[in-house]
Amino acid sequence: MDRLYKTYGRLLAETDLSFSRYLYDKIDWDNRLIVVKGAKGVGKTTMLLQHILRSFKDKQKALYASLDHIWFANHSVLDLAEYHYTHGGTHLFLDEVHKYKTWQQEIKNIYDSYPDLHIVVTGSSMLRPEESLVGDLSRRHRQYTLEGLSFREYLELEKRLAIPSMTLEQLLSSHERMSADFSAETKMLPLFTEYLHHGYYPFYRESGLSYYKAIQQIVSNIIDTDLPAVEKMEYVTATKMKRLFVLLSQMVPYTLNLTNLGQQIEAPRQAVLRMCHLLQQAGLLNLLYNKKSGLSQLGKPEKLYMENTNLLYAMSAGAEIGTVRETFFVNQLKTSHELLFSGTGDFLVDDTITFEVGGRNKNFDQIKDIPNSYLAVDDTEIGYRNRIPLWMFGLLY
Predict the structure, then answer these.
(1) 352-369 burial, b for 16+ CB within 10 Å, e for fewer?
(2) SS3 label, residue 292
(3) H or E element at residue 245
(4) What is the pLDDT of residues 68-104, one digit of tens each?
């Protein structure tokens, strides 16, 4: 037990409070059972430690532990909860729960047996708490998803430029004034280019030149470790999934040809489709469907994108700029909006707004007859009418 408490103390001492993620203030920290899921590397652990530092004068009332710690090879989460509770603890913060086989049942037992104990758990994007948690817990927990850094957050980190997040409606109606105001404070385009390359995962600040290698290692860990912990997978499937992911990274945005991909990785069509869905759930791909198929998990997507632009650059040395722009647009809007494939423009958002994404010379020819349509234009600082700078779509969260 001493080992866990020493690790906890060391992590608290190393935690920086100068910047908090967008989700921090949206969480109802008073709820008795909170589940935060998200892709590896987006900052879930740091957010928990920041909350402990800010909220507990007596740090012994709270305890943070990662369930992949070697201590759990010979002890259970129930053991931890019993010790912490009987020694005056009131809050338990459990990280990487997807790596602990019986976390669902033990969390239920703790919830029922220690009514004064608050529990916060974090885990992979693959977690489905509404299915995993037993009995009434599936209704009583509060679930949140943490995405990677938005461009707005990157500006705050790099330039201490505090821009409040905005709704899409505010962006569409006021982008001319806001883009002029923000651009007067700092040059946005160089920062936007930096963000596309290395601003999505918060650890970019510590990784330096090894940032892309760190992202590649995250991909391997997700496919080798996180996915099998949540889904039944064999080693051969993980190997084929890696091959598939590398292929897709060199093709995106990619119109899915299941037969061709199946031949290249030696897997049947339906297996390829299932792998794509799993990669999306794991936070590595974004799948775009048409209006007819909707978001059906059984349907074939119209296009595939890397989940974010940093991932695209890490996996593909020659990322094409058009692909980068569309990848960014999908990544930033999917947090709060439904995106579908549009047969005329590039994207249909919330079934009402059509967007075409392109460079500064992009014109309205393709969407000129479509009502409620806009251009999301790169290499442009200030917008005009229905031409909106692409970087501004990074201010939505």
Answers:
(1) ebbbbbbeeebeeebbee
(2) coil
(3) helix 235-249
(4) 999 999 999 999 999 999 999 999 999 999 999 999 8
Tokens of 126: 């693959």
Report CA-CA distances (Å) from 385 to 171, 346, 375: 11, 19, 10
Over residues 226-250, the pLDDT tens digits come to: 888 888 888 788 999 999 999 999 8
What is the reported pTM? Answer: 0.93
SS (H, E, C) 87-123: CCCCEEEEECHHHCCCHHHHHHHHHHHCCCCEEEEEE
CA distance linking residue 284 with residue 263, whole number of Å: 22
Answer whether 119's CB lies under 8 Å from 33's CB: yes
Q: Do strands 347-349 and 339-341 pair parallel, antiparallel, or not at all (unpaired)?
A: antiparallel
CA distances from residue 194 to 191, 313, 393 in whole angstroms, order as listed: 5, 12, 16
How far apart (Å, rounded) are the C-alpha atoms in residues 346 and 328?
13
Environment class of 327 (CB within 10 Å of its CB; exposed 0-12, middle 13-18, buried 19+): buried
